[in-house]
């Protein structure tokens, strides 16, 4: 284990950190636009068959009162082809899954900055091209590659911020990281209200991401990654610049880095891999339960958001309502994770989410169902926020990235299944709410099996991770000390991966 006080010399959160967060948050805003765009691209279609009383025909006349053109009306995705509108979103989410894995691996090998740049350019290019695809299948294939880019931006952006921000601010920043996503979701209502043609809509939300080109000039590399790759000179240059912008002395930077490099050579730690998560009973149980909770959180959030937008009422108001409550959830989660245990929060949020969704099945459609759906989305989203932090704290350093990767992969499976479940509404208004509402209560029950991680020193080895939750007395968090003036100083524990 190697102790390096990087944030003592560059600051825990200063002016430089603020502007870095602004840069990354802009990219996260774009991912919110694209991930939730299907709500506007494929809203429910109202049509009539002019030459028959049948509900299905080859030449339907569509009601264009709200939207002049959507992918449903453009390619007649109705009747026996209605499943295709959900399939295109599933393919997109599969792209996000693959992108998260591939770009996550690439960011460890080639750096956070390069992966973010490639992902940003790919997102802008495929987003624009998708608007002009001539048929459903070419449109769906391009959106798969758009999903790849979105996955890369989400993973590399989160890692880059977490590697810059000091320990005492990470829980707050990890919550705020989700704010721009919800703002992107909310902005869909504005884009959709002003632009009623899906081609212009898709083009517009893609052009809105052109500001990410500033990444080429201003995006920094992670000094922690540079140190891990023995690129010491570049790391020192970046850290000195960060210290200067944050009005901190630069003379300690080189000394700290040289000390770290010497310790790294002397104290090699055994590397772990994903298989280590399944070799011992406690870790195996923890990763299986955590993966299921991520699956449920994603499944309910994306599915119910999609479902609410199609409920009775104004689609744009429904979008603002569901995204607005999630925005509130981002800020509400900050004090909760400060004072309440992770496990009790996840259990509570899932039980509350389940109750709200089941209630929808038994009340008339209208304002009441929209309100209950929005509250259900709120609890689901807050659960999603907490499990990001929970997963990070639960698994040992040598396999932490693997644990997050596996959990994130399961979350993408949840978002892939969600559109099809949301599409059950024509078969009965109770079908989708029940199908969504059952899983959170199961997740809450399984969560009881997980250990509490609040205030506990992060596990470093496989042995530490296996012992977590099995010991009755656990060590309190020892990463912060109090100096003579009562000021809290954070020390970052670096383990060479």
SSE diagram, text form:
Blueprint: E1 2-4, H1 6-10, H2 15-35, H3 38-41, E2 47-48, E3 61-62, H4 71-74, H5 83-110, H6 112-130, H7 136-164, H8 167-176, H9 179-194, H10 198-207, H11 215-218, H12 223-228, H13 232-245, H14 253-266, H15 281-309, H16 315-339, H17 342-360, H18 367-394, H19 400-422, H20 431-447, H21 462-467, E4 480-482, E5 488-490, E6 492-494
Antiparallel strand pairs: 1-6, 2-3, 4-5
Offer a concise description of the structure.
This protein has 497 residues and is mainly alpha-helical. The protein contains 21 helices and six strands.
Explain how this protein is built.
- Residues 471-497 have low confidence and may be disordered.
- By secondary structure, the chain is mostly helical.
- It has 21 helices and six strands.
- β4 and β5 form a beta hairpin.
- The strands form three sheets. It has a two-stranded antiparallel ribbon.
- α5 (83-110) runs antiparallel to α19 (400-422) and α8 (167-176) packs antiparallel against α16.
């Amino acid at each position: 284990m190697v102790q390096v006080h990087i944030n003592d010399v560059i600051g825990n959160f200063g002016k430089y950190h603020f502007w870095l967060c602004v840069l990354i948050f802009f990219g996260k805003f774009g991912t919110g636009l694209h991930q939730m765009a299907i709500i506007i691209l494929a809203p429910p279609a109202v049509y009539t068959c002019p030459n028959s009383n049948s509900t299905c025909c080859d030449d339907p006349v569509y009601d264009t009162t709200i939207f002049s053109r959507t992918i449903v009306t453009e390619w007649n995705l109705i009747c026996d082809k209605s499943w295709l509108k959900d399939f295109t979103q599933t393919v997109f989410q599969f792209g996000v899954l693959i992108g998260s894995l591939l770009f996550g691996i690439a960011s460890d090998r080639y750096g956070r900055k390069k992966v973010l740049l490639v992902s940003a350019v790919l997102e802008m290019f495929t987003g624009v091209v998708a608007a002009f695809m001539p048929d459903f299948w070419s449109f769906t294939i391009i959106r798969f590659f758009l999903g790849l880019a979105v996955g890369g931006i989400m993973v590399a952006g989160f890692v880059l911020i977490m590697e810059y921000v000091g320990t005492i601010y990470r829980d707050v920043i990890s919550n705020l990281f989700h704010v721009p996503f919800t703002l992107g979701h909310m902005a869909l209502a504005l884009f959709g209200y002003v632009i009623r043609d899906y081609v212009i809509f898709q083009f517009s939300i893609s052009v809105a991401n052109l500001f990410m080109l500033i990444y080429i000039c201003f995006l920094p590399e992670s000094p922690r990654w540079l140190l891990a790759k023995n690129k010491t000179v570049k790391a020192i240059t970046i850290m000195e610049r960060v210290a200067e912008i944050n009005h901190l002395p630069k003379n300690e930077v080189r000394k700290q880095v040289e000390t770290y490099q010497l310790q790294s050579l002397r104290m090699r730690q055994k590397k772990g891999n994903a298989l280590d998560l399944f070799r011992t009973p406690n870790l195996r149980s923890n990763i299986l339960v955590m993966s299921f909770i991520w699956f449920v959180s994603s499944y309910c959030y994306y599915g119910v958001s999609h479902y609410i937008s199609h409920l009775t009422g104004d689609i744009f108001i429904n979008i603002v309502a569901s995204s607005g409550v999630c925005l509130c959830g981002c800020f509400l989660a900050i004090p909760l994770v400060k004072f309440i245990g992770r496990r009790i929060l996840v259990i509570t949020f899932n039980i509350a989410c389940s109750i709200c969704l089941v209630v929808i099945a038994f009340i008339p459609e209208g304002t009441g169902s929209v309100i209950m759906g929005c509250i259900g989305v709120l609890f689901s989203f807050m659960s999603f926020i907490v499990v990001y932090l929970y997963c990070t704290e639960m698994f040992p350093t040598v396999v932490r990235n693997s644990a997050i990767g596996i959990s994130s992969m399961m979350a993408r499976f949840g978002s892939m299944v969600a559109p099809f479940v949301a599409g059950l509404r024509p078969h009965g208004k109770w079908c989708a709410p029940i199908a969504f509402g059952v899983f959170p209560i199961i997740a809450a029950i399984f969560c009881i099996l997980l250990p509490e991680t609040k205030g506990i020193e992060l596990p470093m080895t496989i042995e530490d991770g296996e012992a977590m939750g099995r010991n009755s007395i656990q060590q309190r968090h020892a990463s912060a000390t109090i100096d003579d003036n009562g000021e809290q100083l954070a020390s970052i524990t670096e383990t060479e991966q």
